[in-house]
């Protein structure tokens, strides 16, 4: 947290009588709980660790994940899943992608018909390349599903820094409800119907944040950073469009917005992993030191395989994979990228003609 700020809660708004649930007691679950509680809603906050529940209940803190944050309002931490979701009009899931399906499957019977269930998770499942909304659709089709994604560093939201996000859902009622529940004077919620594009953008940008962290560690310069972010956008939208996403989604907050923040901020865990590796640290050591999830590492492997299967050129993904898993030197990979065939800038104007 920056020195000049405190993340103590504002006086919560008057109680609204609305009941919501947040599942997952890490950084983002804590930040979203804080927003919802400050907005006057009753928040059932589910996590698996009883000690953490006790700390939230008695101190209003979650020091393992957000050491400087004090929570206020009607927050009911619990390890009891049913108690958390029963009667909640909206359920927000901040569980890492690796555990997402297991948690939902184990508790599928506890969700109620028509409940609004919103994934906050920015990752992809290994088997079948499923996004979290697809897992929800498969495991709990009785519910109404949405996805929230955007330039949303948990720490800044907890500090009430001005932030915007995107709720993507097919049903207008789901979009409207989430906008009402979460929106406030420091948190704006925009709407989109391209669920797949919004969700895939959130997962893909984590890969490029690792690359950007490395570039920062090597002091490659501001021109290089602009090149990297822009070519990342070209690459991730090329991949997503080939899977059916709307290219215009990548012009929005969930696309270029999230890419910018994650590729430029040392508050991003993915960026920090790239920075550490760029400074010479082993990947496993960097991950262990972080102690929180950096989804981009898993996503990189899955996207590389999928892109190769589909024949979609992704030179930045390929280059990062070589650095992390084939012992290629960062300088050799950069040299390879810089001397590859020079292709078109915006592929929607001048189509890419070569596969390099
Ligand atoms: N932190 C952010 O700024 C941020 C912003 C937007 C989206 N997200 C996304 O939210 C998701 C969660 O991220 P985070 O920042 O909260 O991660 P985190 O590492 O801070 O916390 C993860 C939480 O998930 C819990 N968890 C892990 N496995 C579990 C299981 N099997 N059952 C129950 N709980 C389990 C952990 O105990 C921990 O409380 C990620 O997909 C991330 O990309 C994070
Ligand atoms: O800390 P990261 O790298 O997981 O990024 C957090 C958010 O996704 C930024 O929008």
From TrEMBL:
InterPro entries: 6-PGluconate_DH-like_C_sf, 6PGD_dom2, G3P_DH_NAD-dep, G3P_DH_NAD-dep_C, G3P_DH_NAD-dep_N, NAD(P)-bd_dom_sf
All copies of domain Glycerol-3-phosphate dehydrogenase NAD-dependent C-terminal, residue ranges: 194-334
Subcellular location: Cytoplasm
Catalytic activity, as annotated: sn-glycerol 3-phosphate + NAD(+) = dihydroxyacetone phosphate + NADH + H(+); sn-glycerol 3-phosphate + NADP(+) = dihydroxyacetone phosphate + NADPH + H(+)
EC numbers: 1.1.1.94
UniProt keywords, alphabetically: Cytoplasm, Lipid biosynthesis, Lipid metabolism, NAD, NADP, Nucleotide-binding, Oxidoreductase, Phospholipid biosynthesis, Phospholipid metabolism
Domain Glycerol-3-phosphate dehydrogenase NAD-dependent N-terminal: 19-173
Residues annotated to bind sn-glycerol 3-phosphate: 122, 150, 205, 258, 268-270
Catalytic residues (positions): 205
Pathway field: Membrane lipid metabolism; glycerophospholipid metabolism
Enzyme type, top EC level: oxidoreductase
GO molecular function, one term: glycerol-3-phosphate dehydrogenase [NAD(P)+] activity
Domain of life: Bacteria
Pfam families: NAD_Gly3P_dh_C, NAD_Gly3P_dh_N
Record's signal peptide: none
UniProt-annotated binding residues for NADPH: 27-28, 48, 65, 122, 154, 269, 293, 295
Homology family: Belongs to the NAD-dependent glycerol-3-phosphate dehydrogenase family.
Function: Catalyzes the reduction of the glycolytic intermediate dihydroxyacetone phosphate (DHAP) to sn-glycerol 3-phosphate (G3P), the key precursor for phospholipid synthesis.
Protein name per the record: Glycerol-3-phosphate dehydrogenase [NAD(P)+]
Organism: Marinobacter halodurans
Organism classification: Bacteria, Pseudomonadati, Pseudomonadota, Gammaproteobacteria, Pseudomonadales
Gene: gpsA
